[in-house]
Task: inverse folding
């Protein structure tokens, strides 16, 4: 049995239902141990969210289960207190993403966070070519992690080397792409939905897809919509966390 069945999972609904007499009870549960579903906003790091919960609600032990890049939005699982012991079980679950790839341009980070370093024609791409390339990136796939990643070499994160203009050889990793569906084509942009195993770099999929099509490509938008059976539908926003804090501060005593 996975942690998905845990009754201590807290999302938007549970926070909203706590307003009133149960606010202190919910906060007490967070201090004992809870799994909080957060909709990470654009521009925030995963640690920013962890730090927000830790400092706002004065919870000593807080961690997240699966990093989202700053430009990505969507479901981030945050565990508190004794529930941090369950982080690995959430990290191991499959993930679901939606997003957009732009063809004709490549970047060092494989996404829009770094400057374009190469431009190529993309008008030759046909729908049949696109779907054939997508099919080739479905199932068991060997991925080379991007230099702009937290993967470590001799104890040092690759992104620190990348920022200095250093590129080193990386070993490919096996991941599994359960589903890779194109949801909209408006060249040079293509929207998609992907369900994949843990450790999958969607940025690398964007880069590899562009390479297969001879046009180059990079990720311009990414949203995580599910981790296992847990979905973004019940994730709390940062605004709702702030509202919850305001309610607590207004309580007498």
Result:
């Amino acid at each position: 049995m996975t942690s998905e069945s845990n009754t201590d999972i807290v999302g938007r609904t549970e926070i909203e239902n706590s307003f009133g007499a149960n606010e202190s009870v919910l906060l007490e549960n967070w201090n004992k141990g809870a799994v909080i579903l957060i909709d990470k906003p654009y521009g925030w790091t995963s640690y920013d969210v962890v730090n927000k919960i830790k400092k706002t609600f004065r919870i000593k032990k807080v961690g997240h289960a699966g990093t989202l890049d700053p430009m990505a939005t969507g479901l981030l699982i945050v565990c508190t207190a004794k529930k941090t012991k369950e982080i690995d079980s959430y990290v191991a679950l499959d993930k679901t993403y939606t997003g957009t790839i732009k063809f004709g341009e490549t970047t060092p980070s494989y996404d829009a966070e770094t400057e374009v370093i190469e431009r190529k024609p993309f008008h030759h791409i046909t729908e049949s070519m696109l779907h054939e390339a997508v099919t080739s990136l479905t199932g068991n796939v060997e991925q080379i992690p991007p230099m702009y990643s937290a993967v470590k070499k001799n104890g040092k994160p690759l992104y620190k080397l990348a920022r200095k203009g250093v590129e080193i050889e990386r070993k490919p990793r096996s991941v599994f792409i359960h589903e890779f569906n194109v949801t909209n084509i408006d060249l040079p942009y293509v929207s998609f939905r992907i369900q994949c195993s843990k450790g999958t770099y969607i940025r690398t999929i964007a880069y590899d897809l562009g390479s297969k099509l001879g046009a180059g490509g990079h990720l311009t938008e990414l949203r995580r919509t599910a981790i296992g059976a847990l979905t973004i539908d019940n994730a709390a926003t940062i605004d709702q966390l702030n509202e919850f804090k305001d309610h607590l501060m207004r309580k007498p005593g």
Observations:
- The chain has two domains: 3-92+229-250, 95-227.
- Residues 1-5 have pLDDT under 50 and may be disordered.
- Residues 149 and 183 are 27 Å apart (CA to CA).
